[in-house]
Amino acid sequence: MTGALSFLDRVRAQAGVKACFVSRIPEIRVSRDKWDTLERLQPAHEVAVKALGFDWHNLWRAEQVHGDLVMQIPAEGVEGQIVEGADGLVTCGREGVLLGIYVADCAAVYICDCHTGALGLVHSGRKGTEQAVVVRAVEKMCAAYGSDPRNLEVAISPCIRPPRYEVDLPSLLKEQLLGAGIPSGQIVSSGECTGAHVDRYYSYRVEKGNTGRMLALLGRRINNVLPV
What is the Cα–Cα distance from 220 to 95, expressed in whole angstroms? Predict the structure, then answer.
């Protein structure tokens, strides 16, 4: 996992917010088969989920098809599942809902509303960024939960960067987030390139598909959202 001083510090400073980024797990053998690899990684990922105070059945994960579909997650009454066709997930932020995104070069974008308590987690690679999936997530949070972009804290995970990739994902994402109305000081990027640090991260490009997946997790462990 990321260390104590990380790109997630501002997000985790919000009341009740639990977030982490599960990086490379060297002792687990991976393969080109994504779902076989995720099955092998799941026990270690379950440990990370429990460390945040959740159970695996609380976890909602996006299918991730490199599109711009963002889906709302029910606040209660339904066990977590993989949401078909989605690359972004948003929730009102009630206790017991945990969002998850897998990445291996693409960026995981964490969004936290400091006023309403709403949360969002987005998978944004080259195609998703071209389709502005992170902007769709902000729009969904504004429409569904009354979020104001000026109240959002955003964190961008480690992802592949130039010169190991021809597109600067963090730069494009920040430009889109600024355009959506989020203040610059509330957008934090990890600054690390997954392709440059395969000792710490999985990199689909550098490892030519024979790789694992990091897991981004975001949820809240208080009884209700913050008062409006």
Answer: 5
